[in-house]
């Protein structure tokens, strides 16, 4: 690939390296310069441009990304279409990401032009999650570089998703005087939540005295009853390989593989087997739903991945999960410090009387064959949000019918005439007790907002890093929808009248992230018949700054 600054007379057919803004005309990076483009540049007073030209044997960035991604892609993954030299790998099932770290490192060492980034190994992923991305840095790379990459990747794919499957699990809990039965009840409930999150049914609940013989009998009964995995939560923590739990496992014919793990919380975990079936002595922290070392082991076992003594001993890097002064526990009501991507829901406000539209309800007006409110709903559903809540008011039944069989939570706000604040409060009330980290507030009369734009906001949202309010912008002007962190739910729920939450943006400027959008859809609402007509003609009608 040839890179350099050329006079316009020599630049025809070359690719522009840097974007150029020429009044109302914009030439983006990567544009192939035509004779007409060169005339426009001359008229703007530009004499030279920085461009690239391909040489024989060069592979374009998109083709290179596609070829490398295809070679990496293993079981339960699919390769997304490349774009600007990037090809993403997407999970097709609920499972754990398995990474051949040594070969990944060798690939990234082939040439600086080819890069592969992945989620951490053994991360739990859901269908549709992006687990890795291949990025080609320049516009093209020599073919021999790609051949070296493919040679490095020869053999089994270096990425795959090990699918989670339901297992027959038994949880045995031992009793000692002073241990409340309510604690035991809570422990089985928390364990069943863990299992449900991994796609499995509840565990069989067994209880006995904290005694070697009694526990041995329970282990044998669980295995005889068909348990594929036995989990043991002792009334007292394991302190030695000769303690009650490991001794009982040995009496039941089992072998202790490893005691202890370099993960905190979770140090006092015991890994054993009776035949081919895993038997785990659990650390005391399993009585809490917070992430601990046992979770890492359970996840692998539920995906039928072997867990060995060496695997346990290799978990120290990243194993400090316990809250420490430099990573304090969050204040009550603040966003979680969970290592997973934040969970985001959406509220679609569809309750207004649309008085500026005259007699018609603007949400029922059709654009491209469907009502405006349906455009907003479809964008939210396609964005793979945790939940999508629609708040109705004026002509509620018509709005409900317009949304048809879509999988939405539709709530009615009887006080809709008081203004937008009551509708916002109605939607927030539905999310109050759910495990949601943030909410996108969409307006039902903004039909051009697309799933990709919602995705940009969600990607930018990170309350832990100070991005607790994400506001879309176009050409520096703020629009809608806005993504709000959970800490703002309460003040938003107490707003009154026809007033949105704009003042919260001004009052929390340090937590605001402006997210640039490629077009003015985030500024375009439909308040009048003229605005609707313009939208149907493909003309832009920009609304005001963010208010929701």
UniProtKB/TrEMBL annotation:
InterPro entries xrefs: Bifunc_Mopterin-bd, MoaB/Mog-like_dom_sf, MoaB/Mog_dom, MobA-like_NTP_Trfase, Nucleotide-diphossugar_trans
Top-level taxonomic group: Bacteria
GO molecular function: kinase activity; nucleotidyltransferase activity
SMART domains: MoCF_biosynth
Record keywords: Kinase, Magnesium, Transferase
One Pfam family recorded for the sequence: NTP_transf_3
Record domain MoaB/Mog: where: 170-303
SUPFAM superfamilies xref list: Molybdenum cofactor biosynthesis proteins (SSF53218), Nucleotide-diphospho-sugar transferases (SSF53448)
PANTHER family: MOLYBDENUM COFACTOR CYTIDYLYLTRANSFERASE (PTHR43777)
Record's protein name: 4-diphosphocytidyl-2C-methyl-D-erythritol kinase
């Amino acid at each position: 690939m040839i890179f350099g600054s050329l006079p316009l007379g020599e630049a025809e057919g070359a690719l522009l390296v840097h974007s150029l803004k020429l009044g109302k005309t914009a030439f983006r990076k990567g544009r192939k310069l035509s004779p007409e483009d060169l005339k426009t540049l001359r008229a703007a007073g530009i004499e030279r441009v920085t461009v690239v030209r391909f040489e024989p044997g060069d592979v374009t960035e998109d083709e290179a990304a596609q070829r490398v991604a295809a070679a990496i892609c293993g079981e339960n993954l699919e390769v997304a279409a490349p774009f600007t030299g990037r090809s993403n790998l997407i999970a097709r099932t609920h499972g754990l990401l398995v990474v051949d770290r040594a070969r990944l490192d060798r690939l990234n060492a082939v040439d600086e032009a080819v890069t592969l980034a992945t989620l951490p190994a053994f991360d739990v992923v859901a269908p549709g999650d992006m687990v890795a991305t291949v990025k080609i840095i320049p516009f093209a790379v020599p073919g021999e570089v790609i051949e070296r990459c493919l040679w490095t990747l020869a053999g089994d794919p270096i990425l795959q998703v090990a699918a989670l499957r339901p297992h027959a699990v038994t949880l045995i809990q031992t009793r000692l005087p002073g241990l409340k039965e309510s604690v035991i009840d809570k422990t089985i409930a928390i364990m069943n939540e863990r299992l449900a999150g991994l796609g499995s049914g509840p565990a069989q609940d067994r209880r006995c005295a904290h005694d070697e013989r009694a526990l041995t009998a329970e282990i044998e009964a669980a295995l005889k009853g068909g348990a594929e995995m036995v989990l043991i939560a002792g009334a007292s923590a394991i302190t030695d390989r000769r303690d009650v739990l490991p001794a009982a496992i040995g009496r039941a014919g089992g072998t202790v593989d490893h005691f202890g793990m370099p993960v905190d919380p979770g140090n006092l975990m015991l890994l054993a087997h009776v035949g081919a079936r895993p038997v785990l002595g659990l650390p005391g922290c399993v009585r809490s739903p917070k992430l601990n070392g046992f979770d890492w082991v359970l996840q692998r076992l539920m995906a039928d991945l072997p867990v060995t003594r060496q695997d346990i001993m290799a978990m120290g890097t990243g194993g400090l999960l316990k809250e420490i002064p430099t990573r304090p526990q969050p204040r009550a009501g603040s966003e979680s410090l969970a290592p997973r991507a934040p969970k985001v829901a959406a509220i679609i406000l569809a309750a207004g009387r649309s008085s500026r539209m005259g007699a018609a309800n603007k949400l029922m007006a059709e654009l491209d064959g469907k009502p405006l409110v349906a455009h907003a709903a479809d964008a939210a559903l396609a964005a793979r949000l945790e939940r999508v809540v629609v708040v109705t008011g004026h002509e509620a039944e018509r709005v409900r019918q317009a949304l048809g069989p879509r999988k939405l939570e539709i709530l009615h706000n009887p006080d809709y005439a008081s203004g937008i604040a009551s509708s916002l409060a109605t939607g927030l009330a539905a999310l109050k007790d759910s495990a949601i980290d943030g909410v996108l507030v969409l307006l039902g009369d903004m039909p051009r907002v697309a799933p990709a734009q919602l995705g940009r906001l969600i990607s930018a949202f990170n309350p832990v890093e100070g991005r607790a309010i994400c506001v879309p912008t176009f050409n520096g002007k703020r629009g809608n929808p806005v993504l709000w962190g959970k800490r703002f739910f309460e003040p938003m729920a107490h707003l009154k009248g026809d007033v949105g939450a704009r003042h919260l943006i001004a009052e929390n400027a340090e937590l605001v992230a402006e997210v640039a959008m490629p077009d003015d859809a985030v500024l375009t609402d439909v308040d009048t018949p003229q605005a609707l007509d313009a939208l149907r003609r493909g003309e832009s009608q920009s609304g005001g700054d963010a208010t929701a």
